[in-house]
């Protein structure tokens, strides 16, 4: 059932339900206040809901209660402070308080790649759902938002059944999340669709009420937010299918970059040209260092692992290739660096000892401080392993990067990083790097050589300023 909103007709399938707390709108909690949960909690308060965010990380909760957003996400600080002051939002490490507060509890904990293989680690889902269920004393709806292997919602339902008395009637639903870091506030307030997996009319009604603020905002802006109401399995699959598609699109253009490198073509012009075809579209066709972050890489691996378990592994074999194409871009940057520095590659890769390399960018993309599986940081580590002295600068990711890869040298500014460098690698396309003046930077370096790992620099400008320029998939 697909229900466009606002609908010209009443929505008969969605019954109005009274929240178990008796409040006019459901009171909502978010378990896990990381990149997903903190953003959601704050934006839902902005939509007018009464919200409680819960986490086991006391530092994070203390920061949030003090009006400090623990991550870098544009626009979130102001919304946090405004809604704390308005009294609609608070954060807690008390699970009993959380259980007592909410009508709808959203599970937003991490589902990282398992250390022992490709599948998803569901231990945080299990721990959060179990402790919540054990503390519930009235009917509520538990909604999974974390990205999970298909079948998890059924398992969560059993878990809830095991830990709550049947007469409470606690129900489970799944509503995957599609927000992009860096655009998260707008993505939560103005999503391009809402997908819910439900088993009962009551759950459907509660979830509708829990999303009504989003629909109302859309109506005031003369927009529609499509609502897809479906079963558990489809809801879970929609999420990983979307990420698999996005990853495939990026690897497709990076595969074309590889061919351009062999044939002497320019992938940026190729991408622009195919993107004019509306069936292809020009978004997510940016060739470069490839995809990283806490979602696409781990999600395509977990999807393959789950499909394998279900006997459908063949269907997703191409995702293995998508992953390999993506990872090859990292070694390509290493190779370009060695070429520019005139170093030959042996069987163990190039020897870059005695060189000094500036790495601009550490986060997995601009406008975030997130360095989880960041291609930029992975390349910085490869350059370091090859013997180079690596000096890194990132506008927002320094603290996380230092924690993740402490062996690199971290600098306080772009100019500090490039000073005396034999080579500059631009690996995350922050505006500060895109708009850097190649003439001024040229005065600081030891050698005017640049690898543009994101094809984000104006190659003509840099070449005119005397730089030897190499992009990915470009002649
Ligand atoms: N980051 C994104 O942009 C994004 C977008 C869509 C979906 N997702 C999915 O959302 C989920 C969360 O991702 P994230 O990036 O926010 O992760 P994160 O690591 O930033 O946040 C997870 C939070 O859960 C907390 N936590 C761990 N155990 C807990 C427990 N038992 N009870 C309560 N809290 C607990 C952690 O302390 C942490 O603050 C993942 O499944 C991810 O795939 C993330
Ligand atoms: O044309 C492109 C677009 C993106 N990327 C890279 O792809 C990665 C992922 O980018 P993006 O998708 O913008 O970041 P995320 O915030 O990880 O968002 C993805 O992962 C989230 C978590 O599942 C989903 O909710 C989002 O819909 C999905 O876009 C980054 O490293 C980008 O540099 C490219 O290399 N080329």
TrEMBL record:
Its EC number is 1.1.1.22. Pathway: Nucleotide-sugar biosynthesis; UDP-alpha-D-glucuronate biosynthesis; UDP-alpha-D-glucuronate from UDP-alpha-D-glucose: step 1/1. Gene3D superfamilies: Cytochrome c1, transmembrane anchor, C-terminal, NAD(P)-binding Rossmann-like Domain. SUPFAM superfamilies: 6-phosphogluconate dehydrogenase C-terminal domain-like (SSF48179), NAD(P)-binding Rossmann-fold domains (SSF51735), UDP-glucose/GDP-mannose dehydrogenase C-terminal domain (SSF52413). InterPro entries: 6-PGluconate_DH-like_C_sf, NAD(P)-bd_dom_sf, UDP-Glc/GDP-Man, UDP-Glc/GDP-Man_DH_C, UDP-Glc/GDP-Man_DH_C_sf, UDP-Glc/GDP-Man_DH_dimer, UDP-Glc/GDP-Man_DH_N, UDPglc_DH_bac. It catalyses: UDP-alpha-D-glucose + 2 NAD(+) + H2O = UDP-alpha-D-glucuronate + 2 NADH + 3 H(+). It is an enzyme of class 1 (oxidoreductase). Pfam families: UDPG_MGDP_dh, UDPG_MGDP_dh_C, UDPG_MGDP_dh_N. It comes from the Bacteria. Residues 358-459 form the UDP-glucose/GDP-mannose dehydrogenase C-terminal domain. Keywords: NAD, Oxidoreductase. Belongs to the UDP-glucose/GDP-mannose dehydrogenase family. PANTHER family: UDP-GLUCOSE 6-DEHYDROGENASE TUAD. This is UDP-glucose 6-dehydrogenase.
